Amino acid sequence: MKIFFVLFAVMLSTAVVADERVEWNQLSEAQQQILNKQKDHWAELPAERQQALMRGAQRWSDMTPEQRSAASERFKNWRNLPPDQRELLRKRYKEFRALPTEEQARIRMNFKRFQQMDPERKRKLMERWKRMSPEQREHARERLRARRRR
Fold this sequence. Notes:
Layout: H1 2-12, H2 29-34, H3 47-62, H4 65-80, H5 83-98, H6 101-116, H7 119-131, H8 134-149
Helix pairs in contact: 1-3, 1-4
């Protein structure tokens, strides 16, 4: 499961990396343990991929057991999504990363507020959203955008 999380983290990684190859023996013992399934073909991986896997392995080893468990669960949920839904999420993630930092912060804050709502209020909001037609949803988004511009 560890390698799947690492690969998922690499997929979502947007950092620019140096075009520097990493020899297997340059990895820490913890990184080698996490990336063990990559060992036999490590030398054939592109430098960027090696760097990304190395960063993912480092993030994994820096996590607490609880964080690892939560990350494994998220990755399991990701793998169980239909391919079209995964593609939609990748697209939305890419769009999110293209937003200005302030907009990203606003979205994160609103998501956190939503997560902290009492379950009944969340359920009602989600039901209301699901009942809306695509046109009504777009209209609601436009109203929110206009409200933010004021």
